[in-house]
Design the sequence.
């Protein structure tokens, strides 16, 4: 920021040098700054309001949550909604475990395959390299709903409906093209000299990949893994279509089916569940925030 | 120990010819410099020797063994890259030990070799640091250390000093030569800087347009360039060129009169381009009336002990390196003379040296 200011000041002084005026940095008038603050505050409120509503409702009593005159600040705080998640009839713990298990395994498998594919797309000198890359990317152009039909039939024939394996296959099949291209982006930005140095040091292609390329691409790997984890964690359509038993159901589909009934909706329970569902994503994001930003900016390898 | 031979090596990328018919013999322990402007093919040639590129034509030998089909990881080479190519996730020690670990040497031997190399380069106190914590000069030393620690048969350096400031570059030049003497490997050094080439190389190969123009010792290249390109590339400031015509026993051009021995003129086909190095021009004294260059001063560059005077001679320009006793001024008319033995003659069409 300071550097940018200095550069801007230098530019300005260069411009004004001809008129022999002292270089001065122009300040934004207070009115313009106030308007900017108001606009930013409005956007923040717009984004944060649903989150606030979720948190507030999760600690309200069932009576207050369904009251026709909604309260902005809960009249009384209760932990019953959270307690109910683990003691009530909804198998929330099972959903939570299923979500974690399938999302983590899918992210790990997808990152492993994406790394190999992305490295091949980035460095491969074979003839069909470009075509293969585009073909893989083309699968991302198809909407999820188009893919779900054939996937359902395939898993049905393979007797993989209502299984973790089936869900993970579904998740990874959709995550790998995206992951491979994301990893390709990271590898493209990585100086080739590092790999060549390792080749000269006596390592073969796989040795170079796992001893040099992967360790230096940790920010990229983590970013890709977190993206895939988030996408998988949030996926509603696949579990809704491929799983019909509570024992294998994940959070998004499970919550949707459990808390909305024909005659009444348990808003407090649903919001408590939604809050717990959101937490892993928030934690994952903040835990890897720095490496995500580093990974997303080009020239991630400043150490070379 | 290994000498290196290239036989008719050529390289194409698609339709672009990068190297043509390169023959080169590098002797055992020799320090050979490949020098040329950007895009002349010198780095590609080095990469072919390393095994990072394969030649489209020709053969590469290390000693008597043909190596073009041998993978880079199986050739006994070490390479220093322009951007150092250090492993950012490893310490300096890890960087230097990486190649030795691959060779499954005992841990104590690896430690001994790394510390010896670090001692030679004065980087012992940096062994625990990561590359990003080092300055450019320190990274350069680590890259050198990583190469020498392996005792390679062939030592390849690709413009290793181009990212350093001028002062450090001069220091590192001496250091690289010191290291080369210590490791006694055959070394090939790529640079675009002719001063680096002249000061470091046992022999120099000058490259241009994918062709090795001339291979020789620094003195040979300076005294007897085979063509106009080599003549202009070697020497600072660059040689000046003046177009002349044969006129009886002398060559004449606009502002130029050069009386040369008859045997030097016998091969000149009517016209010739005369090359004169700046350091061979001197103020005209009247005694050496045979070889005279007359021009108008365009620019004077004072350099303390000497000065570079750029003269317009007819439509062409030459630079003269002159002592500071004479003061020259812009637009002043100046007469300089040159020793006829120092005048180089080139064919105006082919650029090849005549006579």
Sequence:
């Amino acid at each position: 920021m300071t550097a940018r200011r200095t550069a801007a000041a230098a530019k300005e002084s260069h411009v004004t040098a001809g008129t022999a005026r002292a270089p001065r940095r122009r300040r934004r008038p207070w009115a313009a700054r106030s308007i900017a603050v108001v606009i930013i505050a409005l956007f923040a409120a717009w984004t944060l309001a649903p989150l606030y509503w979720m948190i507030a409702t999760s600690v309200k009593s069932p009576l207050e949550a369904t009251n026709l005159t909604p309260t902005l600040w809960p009249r009384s705080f209760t932990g019953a909604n959270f307690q109910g998640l683990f003691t009530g009839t909804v198998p929330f713990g099972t959903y939570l475990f299923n979500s974690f298990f399938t999302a983590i395994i899918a992210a790990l498998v997808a990152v492993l395959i994406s790394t190999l594919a992305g490295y091949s797309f980035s460095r491969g000198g074979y003839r069909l390299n470009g075509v293969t890359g585009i073909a893989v990317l083309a699968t991302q152009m198809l909407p999820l709903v188009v893919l779900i039909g054939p996937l359902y039939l395939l898993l049905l024939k393979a007797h993989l409906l209502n299984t973790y394996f089936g869900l993970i296959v579904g998740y990874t099949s959709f995550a790998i093209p995206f992951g491979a291209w994301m990893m390709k982006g990271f590898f493209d930005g990585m100086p080739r000299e590092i790999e060549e140095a390792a080749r000269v040091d006596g390592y073969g292609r796989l040795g170079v990949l796992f001893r040099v390329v992967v360790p230096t691409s940790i920010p990229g790997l983590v970013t890709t893994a977190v993206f895939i984890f988030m996408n998988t964690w949030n996926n509603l359509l696949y579990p809704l279509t491929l799983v019909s038993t509570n024992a294998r159901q994940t959070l998004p589909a499970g919550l949707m089916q459990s808390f909305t009934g024909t005659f009444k909706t348990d808003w407090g329970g649903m919001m408590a569940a939604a809050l717990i569902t959101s937490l892993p994503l928030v934690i994952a994001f903040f835990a890897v925030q720095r490496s995500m930003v580093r990974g997303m900016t080009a020239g991630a390898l400043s150490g070379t | 120990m290994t000498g290196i031979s290239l036989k008719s090596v050529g390289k194409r990328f698609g339709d672009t010819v990068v190297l043509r018919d390169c023959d080169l013999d590098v002797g055992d322990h020799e320090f050979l410099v490949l020098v040329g402007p950007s895009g002349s093919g010198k780095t590609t040639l080095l990469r072919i020797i390393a095994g990072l590129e394969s030649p489209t034509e020709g053969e590469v030998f290390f000693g008597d063994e043909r190596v073009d089909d041998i993978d880079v990881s199986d050739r006994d080479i070490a390479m220093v890259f322009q951007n150092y190519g250090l492993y950012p996730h490893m310490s300096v020690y890890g960087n230097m030990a990486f190649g030795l670990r691959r060779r499954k040497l005992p841990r104590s031997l690896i430690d001994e070799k790394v510390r010896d190399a670090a001692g030679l380069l004065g980087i012992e106190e940096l062994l625990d640091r990561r590359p990003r914590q080092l300055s450019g000069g320190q990274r350069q030393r680590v890259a050198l250390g990583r190469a020498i620690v392996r005792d390679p048969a062939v030592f390849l350096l690709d413009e290793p000093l181009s990212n350093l400031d001028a002062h450090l570059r001069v220091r590192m030049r001496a250091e690289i030569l010191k290291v080369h003497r210590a490791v006694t490997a055959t070394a090939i050094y790529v640079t675009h800087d002719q001063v680096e080439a002249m000061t470091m190389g046992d022999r120099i190969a000058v490259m241009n347009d994918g062709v090795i123009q001339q291979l020789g010792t620094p003195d040979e290249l300076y005294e007897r360039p085979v063509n106009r390109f080599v003549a202009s590339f070697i020497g600072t400031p660059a040689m000046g060129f003046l177009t002349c015509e044969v006129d009886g026993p002398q060559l004449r051009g606009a502002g130029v009169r050069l009386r040369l021995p008859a045997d030097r003129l016998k091969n000149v086909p009517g016209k010739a381009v005369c090359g004169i190095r700046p350091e061979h021009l001197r103020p005209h004294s009247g005694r050496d009336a045979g070889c005279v260059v007359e021009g108008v001063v365009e620019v004077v560059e004072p350099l303390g002990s000497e000065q570079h005077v750029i003269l317009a001679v007819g439509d062409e320009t030459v630079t003269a390196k002159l002592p500071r006793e004479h003061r020259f001024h812009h637009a002043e008319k100046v007469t300089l003379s040159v020793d006829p033995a120092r005048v180089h003659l080139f064919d105006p069409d082919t650029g090849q040296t005549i006579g």
Summary: Chain B has two domains: 4-226, 240-346. Chain B is about 25% helix and 35% strand. The mean pLDDT of chain B is 91. The interface with chain A takes residues 50, 52, 71-74, 77-79, 81-89, 98-99, 102-103, 130-132, 146, 150 of chain B (CB under 8 Å).
